[in-house]
């Protein structure tokens, strides 16, 4: 009979790139396991779009480890992954949409080079930021060296102006509010991390 693994025992990974079978399918990245691996997992918090693949047993183990080491809950993790995979870039920009009057008076400008940074050489203040952080700062139209208090102020203004009670005729407002909430959560988490 197999002994049940202790729940927080680290999962050892194979070294290097994603392991592939001869016909190009994914093989489980757990060390010593060569099972087919239909389950993707983000490699780490800052590379949510960089996947490694596991069999069912090891994806479960990996998720437990992830929670243990990163301190985020199962649902939050799923939310992170969902956002990383669906939120390639904001689907709207402040000041350009049909509800421009409820957001900011300024048209959206890519003044910090967020969207160029990935193809050209990195903008210095942007280096070290993940794509989701860059997108979050771009949503707020703020520079990454902005103080938490300023960010919070901007967030509160936007959340208020996008609140469904004030936007009964704009079905997009709720969607925008969700993006703002997610972006704020990403940035706030980072501020908290820096303080520790
Ligand atoms: Zn496996």
Key traits:
196 residues, mainly alpha, Helix Hairpins, two-stranded antiparallel sheet, 5 helices, 2 strands, 39% helix, elongated, binds zinc ion
List the helices and strands and how they pair.
Layout: E1 39-44, E2 47-54, H1 56-70, H2 74-86, H3 131-140, H4 148-161, H5 172-195
Antiparallel strand pairs: 1-2
Bound molecules: zinc ion (ZN).
Overview of the structural elements:
- By secondary structure, this protein is mainly alpha-helical.
- Among the domains are: 10-69, no CATH class; 128-196, Helix Hairpins.
- The protein is built from five helices and two strands; from the N terminus they run E-E-H-H-H-H-H.
- It has helices spanning 56-70, 74-86, 131-140, 148-161, 172-195, and strands at residues 39-44, 47-54.
- The chain has a two-stranded antiparallel ribbon with strand order 1-2.
- A hairpin with a 2-residue loop joins strand 1 and strand 2 (47-54).
- It is elongated, with a radius of gyration of 20 Å.
- The N and C termini lie far apart (43 Å).
- The relative contact order is 0.09.
- Bound molecules: zinc ion.
- Zinc ion binds next to helix 1.
- The helix/strand series, from N terminus to C terminus, equals EEHHHHH
**What are the low-pLDDT stretches, counting only 5+ consecutive residues below 50?**
1-7, 87-107, 116-124
The beta-strand count equals 2
Strand content: 5-15%
CATH topology name of the domain at 128-196, in short, is: Helix Hairpins
> N- to C-terminal separation?
43 Å
Biggest sheet descriptor: 2 strands, antiparallel
CATH architecture name of the domain at 128-196: Orthogonal Bundle
Q: Structural class of the helix and strand makeup?
A: mainly alpha
- The coarse overall form would be elongated
Task: Tell me the radius of gyration.
Answer: 20 Å
CATH class of the domain at 128-196: Mainly Alpha
Q: What is the CATH homologous superfamily assignment of the domain at 128-196?
A: DnaJ domain
